[in-house]
Fold this sequence. Notes:
The longest helix is centred in the last third of the chain and has 29 residues, at 110-138. The chain has helices at 9-20, 23-33, 92-104, 110-138; strands at residues 39-54, 63-77, 82-88. Helix 2 (23-33) crosses helix 3. The chain is an alpha+beta fold. The protein contains four helices and three strands; from the N terminus they run ααβββαα.
Amino acid sequence: MNMMSDPNASRKSWLGLLAKSAASDVARHWAALNRVPEYTVLRSPEIGGVMVRGRAGAVGAAFNLGEMTVTRASVRLADGTVGHGYVQGRDKDHALHAALVDALMQTGAAETIEAAVLTPLRDAMTARKTGRAAKAAATKVDFYTMVRGED
């Protein structure tokens, strides 16, 4: 979907980044921020499962690929802003940190949170992708056909 036509594109982006980042990275950057806002837990972190769906070749009818474990949490800041965290795996702290970051990104603290938490997570994710791509490229085999001049 075009980010210009989706009013929630920015929020989807940071929630996706928080969900895909390693729990240890999120915890480290959250701790370095040294800023715990006053909040109320609306939904304590809970572990559950979701069905993962796929499409063969990215086309055709969707099929159920299997289940994935997720953890979710919701918080409300003192000013009433609600944040949600929904992360892969069974890490309750990761879900709570994601919910707090989501809530703070909807307030005047967004610029600070972006610089202290989201930008380092985005940089780490880019580095991991680049590293995987380089590793895959090193194993690439080029097959070619030589013309031998025979009929």
